[in-house]
Specification:
Blueprint lengths: L5 H27 L1 H8 L3 H17 L1 H33 L3 H33 L4 H25 L3 H20 L74 H10 L1 H9 L2 H10 L1 H6 L20 H30 L10 H24 L1 H22 L2 H15 L2 H10 L3 H28 L2 H19 L24
Length: 508
């Protein structure tokens, strides 16, 4: 397979982006028709709330299933199958004759959303690892674009017909086109990204793994190796000091001395590296089939009582920190989407025409920030981007709450959209580096934040007032900043990408 090129990277990137757009478009399509579903099924406000809760509960409860499926069939197949299930959900929801069946359908939608969410983020993390380039923030920007496209389609269709089945049929056809466009460019890899490339002199031999590595050269022979006794009659030059006769392959000519071999290897370092990098997809595919091999190939034997491979294990401290950052990051994002308009209207006393600008400012700033956030990640590293962004969101919103007024509030909301934009993409990449189970758990905690965050703000607002409730959002962003200090963020090669230095050495 040829070495990866910018064209192949772009093809894979846009194929994965189609999945993100797919999920945003599918979710935006059925949510935008909730009023129509409410009228057709004769639902009350509480029943509509339960319908929305069923979707979030299905996504949160899908964690064990997602983890098992990711290990068994890989992120590529899981993303395609879950996407097809989401198209079927639209058709079933448009024909649901009563409320109980609608609840079951929406809960199934949540499970499929949970599967696709983990699978497409695993694809995005594997893309970054395979090509050593950032892309996750732009992928998440296409999710926002999918939501916007769904809203525009809903507006256009409803001007022509009020039929939900007709609308969902058109949306389903567009979703299938998106899925068809993404199918051929998806990476064959799994949730666990490939190992960092090793140079020919340091490539480890991974037992129990199919990953091909370049054998060690004579230079890699440990200094402590004891040469065999030189046979009688041999010349002193036949066995140099500190090397073993076994280092010389059988059948090699006498001229193939270690010095000559070393010179030959040193003359072609680029060729050796190209050999290692020539098969990113193959390495990803192998890791997809054996995700546990990456973590256990060079590890000592498991202690008694350790869970057997293939079973869910207790999450590590790093995974819990990532889950905490994801949960509080999605609390910040979800609460702003649900409460910003009400805060503008009830607290700031904005007019009915100005109040919706709150969520508009948050959404636009988040979309723009995600478009450019990959450049920030490349230049400064994921950890610094998350820490700085979440701190900007916390401080900006807190100052806006203290200042009051329409303009300060909108500026504070803009800080939240700008600062929180890169949190979830960066945490997904870090979680994918911990394995498929960690990624599934972190995604489930993110869903829990989206589901429980707005309700938490409502509880605080009911106990005190909405200003205190919004202060809780600022506190959630601050928690992200604190947890980001301890998360082991991924490292990247220090070689420049498109003339921009790549961050290296980012750690906990």
């Amino acid at each position: 397979m040829p070495a990866p090129t910018p064209l192949s990277f772009q093809r894979a990137k846009w194929s994965i982006a189609a999945l993100f757009c797919f999920l945003g478009f599918q979710y935006g399509t059925w949510v935008s028709r909730i009023p129509a579903l409410k009228s057709r099924l004769d639902l009350g406000a509480g029943e509509v709330g339960l319908l929305l809760m069923a979707c979030g509960a299905g996504a949160a409860a899908s964690f064990p299933l997602v983890a098992a499926l990711t290990r068994r069939i890989g992120s590529r197949r899981l993303s395609l199958l879950s996407a097809l299930a989401l198209v079927a959900v639209l058709a079933a929801l448009s024909a649901a004759p009563n409320y109980p069946l609608a609840l079951i359908t929406v809960c199934a939608d949540g499970v499929a959303v949970g599967c696709l969410n983990v699978a497409m983020n695993a694809q995005g993390a594997a893309l970054e690892k395979a090509y050593d380039r950032t892309a996750m923030s732009q992928l998440h920007a296409t999710f926002s674009a999918g939501l916007l496209a769904a809203a525009l389609l809903t507006s256009g269709v409803t001007t022509a017909t009020a039929s939900v089945p007709a609308h969902f049929t058109v949306a389903g056809a567009l979703l299938l086109l998106l899925l068809l466009g993404s199918r051929t460019g998806l990476l064959p890899g799994g949730a666990t990204p490939p190992a960092t490339r090793d140079t020919p002199d340091t490539a480890p031999a991974r037992s129990g793994s199919d990953v091909t590595s370049i054998p060690s050269t004579p230079d890699a022979t440990p200094a402590r190796s004891t040469p065999d006794t030189t046979p009688a009659g041999s010349t002193p030059d036949a066995t140099p000091v500190g090397s073993t006769p076994d280092a010389t392959p059988a059948g090699s000519t006498p001229d193939a001395t270690p010095a000559t071999a070393r010179g030959t290897l040193d003359a072609q370092p680029a060729a050796a590296l190209d050999t290692l990098g020539a098969q990113p997809a193959a390495a990803l595919d192998t890791l997809d089939a054996q995700p546990a091999a990456l973590d256990t190939a060079d590890a000592p034997p498991a202690a008694p009582g350790t869970p057997r491979r293939g079973r869910l294990a207790l999450p590590s401290g790093a995974t819990l920190l990532m889950g905490c950052a994801m949960a509080f990051g999605t609390i910040t994002e979800g609460a702003m989407n649900d409460w910003s308009t009400l805060y503008m209207k009830d607290v700031v006393k904005a007019s009915a025409a100005v109040a919706p600008l709150g969520i508009a400012v948050v959404s636009v700033m988040m979309l723009l920030a995600r478009v450019f956030a990959d450049r920030w990640r490349t230049r400064w590293g994921d950890g610094r981007v998350v820490r700085t962004g979440s701190a900007v969101a916390a401080v900006g919103l807190a100052l806006a709450l203290l200042a009051g007024g329409i303009v300060p509030t909108l500026l504070g909301f803009a800080c939240v959209g700008l600062g929180a934009a890169a949190v979830t993409p960066c945490v997904y990449v870090a979680a994918a580096g911990q394995g498929s189970d960690a990624l599934a758990l972190v995604a489930a905690m993110g869903t829990t934040g989206l589901l429980g965050g707005p309700a938490l703000i409502g509880f605080v607002a009911g106990a005190a007032n909405l200003t205190v409730g919004m202060a809780t959002v600022a506190a959630a962003a601050l928690v992200v900043t604190l947890t980001a200090l301890r998360i082991p963020w991924p490292t990247r090669s220090p070689s420049p990408v498109n003339g921009v230095p790549v961050a290296a050495g980012e750690g906990a």
